[in-house]
Amino acid sequence: MSLSEPDRELVVAELGREPTTAEAALFENLWSEHCAYRSSRPLLSAFESEGDQVVVGPGDDAAVLALPEPDAADAPAAERAADDYGDQYVTFGVESHNHPSFVDPFDGAATGVGGIVRDTMSMGAYPIALLDSLYFGGFDRERSRYLFEGVVEGISHYGNCIGVPTVGGSVAFHGGYEGNPLVNVACVGLTNEDRLVTATAQEPGNKLVLVGNGTGRDGLGGASFASEDLAEDAETEDRPAVQVGDPYAEKRLIECNEALVDEDLVLSARDLGAAGLGGASSELVAKGGLGARIDLDSVHQREPNMNATEILLAESQERMCYEVAPGDVDRVRELADRFDLGCSVIGEVTDGNYVCEFAGDGDSETVVDVDAEYLADGAPMNDLPSEAPAQPTRDLPDPEPALADAVESVVSAPSTASKRWVYRQYDHEVGARTAVKPGDDAAIMAIRETAVDGDDAALPPAEQGVGLALSSGANPNWTEAAPYEGARAVALENATNLAAKGAVPLAAVDCLNGGNPEKSDVYGGFKGIVDGLADACAALDTPVVGGNVSLYNDSVEGPIPLTPTLALIGTKRGYDAPPAALDAERAGDSELLLVGAGGDALGGSEYLAQAGGTDRFPELPDADSGPDSPALADLVASLAAVARHESTLATHDVSDGGLAVALAELVTDAAGADVTLPDRVAAFDETPGRLVVQTTDPEAVADLADDLPVLRLGDVTTDGTLSLSVGDESTSLDADAVRELRGVIERELA
Question: Which of 111, 294, 374, 732 satisfies CB 3.0 to 4.6 Å to 378 for a cystine?
Answer without folding.
Answer: 374
